[in-house]
Design brief:
This protein has 115 residues and is mostly beta strands. It has 1 helix and 8 strands. Helices cover 5% and strands 48% of the residues. A hairpin with a 2-residue loop joins strand 2 and strand 3. The protein binds fe (ii) ion. Fe (ii) ion binds next to loops.
């Protein structure tokens, strides 16, 4: 996946210990549990610091990329749904999963994990 700006630059916080509350509020929290060739991936935005979920400020969607390939996307409505999802991914051990979320006010935020 390119980091080229489309909906704004992709922000990717890798040092959570040094991150601000604003950065922690937007950085996806990703866990992965392998069962054979399948991996249950849980993604939550607002885990480290709560993110608003109101019509004027909310998480619009979450996308998953396996390597560079887009493999899943979940769209949210404010108030009525919460950016906290579970998706089963078929992946080889060690493959990179990139999670990208889009906040309607603060743009694109990424987190990477090895599956
Ligand atoms: Fe935001």
């Amino acid at each position: 996946m390119s980091d080229a700006p489309i909906l704004g630059p992709l922000k990717h916080v890798t040092d959570l210990d040094a991150a601000s509350d604003f950065e922690l509020k937007h950085t996806p929290y990703v866990t992965a549990e392998r069962d054979g060739d399948k991996v249950r991936v849980n993604v939550k935005v607002g885990h480290y610091v709560s993110h608003p979920n109101q019509p004027d400020h909310y998480i619009q969607w979450i996308m998953l990329y396996l390597g560079d390939a887009p493999i899943a996307r979940v769209d949210f409505s404010p108030v009525a749904s919460d950016p906290d999802v579970s998706i089963v991914v078929v992946a080889e051990p060690g493959e990179r999963l990139r999670t990208v979320e889009y906040c309607n006010l603060h743009g694109l935020w990424a987190a990477d994990v090895k599956l």
